[in-house]
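A protein record in our archive is deliberately plain, so that people and models can read it alike. The tokens are whole numbers drawn from a learned vocabulary of local backbone shapes. For reference, a complete record is included directly beneath this paragraph.
>
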Amino acid sequence: MTQLIRVHFDVRAAMPASLEAVERFFLEFRRKNQALLDRANCFAAELLLREALNNAVLHGCHADPGKQVRCLLRLGERRLLIAVEHNGDGFDWRAARARVAALSDSSGRGMEILRAYASHVRYNERGNAVAIVKRLSC
């Protein structure tokens, strides 16, 4: 017997690779998110989404609004899926995963944030797409 999972929302979006576009998308996510999740899950979800989108814009597309960032969000009963892909440069996620940022560094903490708040993270081979799963506490 299969169990049906109720989806609270399923959003697909494509946006120019700009921080302004990310902010508009994020605010819409926040509006939906805060109505559905408790405070701890809401914080983690927002942190993971912002990290994935900002990295795609700033590092993958170098904030070139002529490039595009695509995002899929799916919030279900017990998990949130965040999938982000861009048509900019990818990165060597294997090497980045092994690095640890120094306390004095002003950037480079993305992998640490994902390790701390995500349940599962998977990159494509090129490093221009990431799927993040956050299991939600009840």
Remarks:
- Helices lie at 19-36, 39-60, 93-98, 110-117.
- The first strand starts at residue 7 and ends at 16.
